[in-house]
Amino acid sequence: MAPKAFLIAVIAAILAIAAPASAAYDYTVGDDAGWKLGVNYTRWAEGKEFRVGDKLLFKYNQDAHSVAKVNASDFQQCVASNASNVLTSGNDEITLSTPGTKWYICSIADHCTKGMKLVITVSTAQAPAPAPTPRTMPLPAPPSSPGTPATMPWPRAPSFPQTPATSAAGDASPLQSYMWILGALAAFKVILVPLAMFRQEFPLVC
């Protein structure tokens, strides 16, 4: 289940990256006003980025206007020399299939000279973002050859902290000195008590 969810997430990420590069836009010429007299189409085209794959939608009254695809010379003279390039459906859709400058006029009467003309520049489609470079993992170190066994270091003996040697009797603790005194008193008592008793029983005659 987890690998399937991961695959779906990867595909969604790829589509999200590729979507801005491949998305095409539909431009309604003149926006809500459409294709008619009294609209400044030069101003309408300003600030717009037309790319290959985008579409121009000409919406107009087919009984009063037309859309003619012309070249630069016909655009300047407001004439449509090629009648096969004149559209009259009232709802024309033109796909911008090639880059470059495109010219459009209304071929009815003097509508072109009155401002019903449009020139745009089409650029190539936006290049897709480069795929991320895969990260390379470092190669493992080659194993040692069979003829050369790996040497293992000998274990080191544990080291213990050195304790200072006991000092002389003069450095003995007070408790040890006290024990020595008690021992001496006990020995003195053992010797003196029998001696005193002996002197009481057998007094010395001078």
From TrEMBL:
Cellular location(s): Membrane
Record keywords: Copper, Disulfide bond, Electron transport, Glycoprotein, Membrane, Metal-binding, Signal, Transmembrane, Transmembrane helix, Transport
InterPro entries found in the cross-reference section: Cupredoxin (IPR008972), Phytocyanin-like (IPR039391), Phytocyanin_dom (IPR003245)
Pro residues biased stretches: 129-146
Membrane topology type: Single-pass type I membrane protein
Region feature (Disordered): 127-168
GO terms, molecular function: electron transfer activity; metal ion binding
Pfam families registered for this protein in UniProt: Cu_bind_like
Transport recorded as keyword: yes
Gene Ontology annotations of biological process type: response to symbiotic fungus
Transmembrane segments: 178-198
Cellular component, GO annotation: plasma membrane
Signal peptide: 1-23
Domain Phytocyanin as annotated: residue spans: 25-124
Family matches, as PANTHER family: BLUE COPPER PROTEIN, PHYTOCYANIN DOMAIN-CONTAINING PROTEIN
Name this protein carries in UniProt: Lamin-like protein
Source organism (scientific name): Sesamum calycinum
